[in-house]
């Protein structure tokens, strides 16, 4: 079982092998928990993590095995996180960033700007001070190491919007982190 | 077998094996997708019919509350279409404004095509001859037939054989 890919495990689950799903839960539990804990703290984070995997199982037959499993699971996680934050009224109902077209900021351009690892260390300190819509793309890109395409699939937004959000998030984080240092 | 000293995995497998949670069958998702597509097509048809009806009725009966409401119906139908279309990657990978413009342009073009046909004129005539539920009141009221003796008749269209009985 350990040699099989996530997609093969998902296919096995679709064919009735519940143990295969158990392996997927083991593999993704820490990643999903880490992602959720960036936005939700305490026992609620644990509950939501469990709900995500339960929802993933209920909807496993909607997963197309020719696609990657990870963005599909993160999409479910994103929906649960967004629904929770909307109930707490910490998220606006509409994201205007997906409404207008943006100049396409390529992933390569972003990685050329600065050392990703160094930025990650800086951002950790200030991440809670930015809006959830920017925090999410930073978390997915820097902490979960997903590509722009994958983040676009998870958040159901254009790739150009992902690039712009990451760029804006970095600018906000640099401002906030710089203020913290100078205070 | 996955390691069973993991609490979350244990909890989830326990719920699955006890039957507390079940995977939805593939047919559910197929029906759901078909439903979205059918609803989307239906919504688009409502939008183009309503838009073409408003364009047809406005010169005949003038502005009215009914036509204003129908105008908003067109907007709601377009928004519903965009909401439904966002489920599909080919739509959500584009900025929303592009989708909005595409739907508006398609609605306008299709409405213009319908206006070129005698559909609305024939429906109006039929509405006056027979009392068809929903259709007759819509056409008579929308085209100003309740207030006017001659209805659906303008110098521009020259179809002056549509007098009210």
Share of β-strand residues of chain A: under 5%
Largest sheet of chain A: none
Poorly predicted spans of chain B: 153-165
Radius of gyration of chain A, in angstroms, nearest whole number: 17 Å
Strand percent estimate of chain B: under 5%
Q: What this model shows, in words?
A:
The complex is a heterodimer of chains A (183) and B (165). Chain A folds into two domains: 6-87, RNA polymerase sigma factor, region 2, helix turn helix motif (Rna Polymerase Sigma Factor, Chain: A, Orthogonal Bundle), CATH 1.10.1740; 96-182, Orthogonal Bundle (Arc Repressor Mutant, subunit A). Chain A is 69% helix and 0% strand. Chain A contains nine helices and no strands. Chain A has helices at residues 6-14, 18-37, 43-58, 69-87, 107-113, 116-126, 132-143, 148-155, 159-182. In chain A, α6 (116-126) crosses α9. Chain A starts with 5 loop residues before the first helix and ends with a helix. Chain B starts with 6 loop residues before the first helix and ends in a 23-residue tail after the last helix. With 165 residues, chain B is an all-alpha fold. In chain B, α2 packs antiparallel against α3 and α3 crosses α5 (96-116). Chain B has one domain (25-142). Chain B is elongated and about 75 Å long. Chain A binds chain B through residues 1, 13-14, 18-19, 21-23, 25-26, 29, 49-50, 53-54, 57-62, 98-102, 152-153, 156-161, and chain B through 1-3, 6, 8-9, 11-13, 15-17, 21-26, 28-29, 86, 89, 92-98.
């Amino acid at each position: 079982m350990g040699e099989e890919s996530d997609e093969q495990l998902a296919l096995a689950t679709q064919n009735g092998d519940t143990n295969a799903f158990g392996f997927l839960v083991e593999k993704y539990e820490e990643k999903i928990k880490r992602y959720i804990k960036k936005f939700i703290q305490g026992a609620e984070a644990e509950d939501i993590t469990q709900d995500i995997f339960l929802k993933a199982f209920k909807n496993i037959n909607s997963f197309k095995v020719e696609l990657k499993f990870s963005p599909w699971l993160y999409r479910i996680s994103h929906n649960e996180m967004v629904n929770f934050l909307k109930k707490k009224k910490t998220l606006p109902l509409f994201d205007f960033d997906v409404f207008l077209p943006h100049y396409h900021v390529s992933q390569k351009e972003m990685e050329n700007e600065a050392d990703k690892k160094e930025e990650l260390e800086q951002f950790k300190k200030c991440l809670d001070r930015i809006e959830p819509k920017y925090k999410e793309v930073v978390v997915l890109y820097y902490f979960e190491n997903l590509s722009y395409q994958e983040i676009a699939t998870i958040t159901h937004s254009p790739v150009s919007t992902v690039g712009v959000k990451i760029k804006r998030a970095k600018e906000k984080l640099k401002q906030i982190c710089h203020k913290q240092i100078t205070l | 077998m996955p390691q069973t000293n993991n609490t979350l995995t244990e909890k989830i497998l326990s719920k699955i094996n006890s039957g507390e949670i079940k995977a939805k069958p593939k047919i559910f998702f197929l029906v759901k997708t078909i439903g979205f597509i059918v609803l989307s097509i239906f919504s688009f048809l409502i939008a183009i019919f309503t838009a073409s009806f408003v364009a047809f009725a406005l010169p005949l009966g003038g502005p009215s509350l009914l036509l204003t409401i129908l105008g908003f119906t067109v907007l709601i139908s377009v928004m519903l279409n965009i909401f439904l279309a966002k489920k599909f990657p080919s739509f959500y990978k584009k900025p929303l404004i592009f989708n909005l413009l595409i739907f508006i342009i398609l609605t306008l073009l299709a409405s213009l095509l319908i206006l070129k046909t005698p559909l609305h004129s024939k429906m109006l005539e039929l509405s006056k001859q027979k009392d068809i539920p929903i259709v007759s009141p819509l056409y008579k009221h929308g085209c100003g037939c309740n207030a006017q003796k001659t209805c659906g008749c303008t110098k521009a269209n020259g179809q002056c054989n549509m007098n009210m009985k």
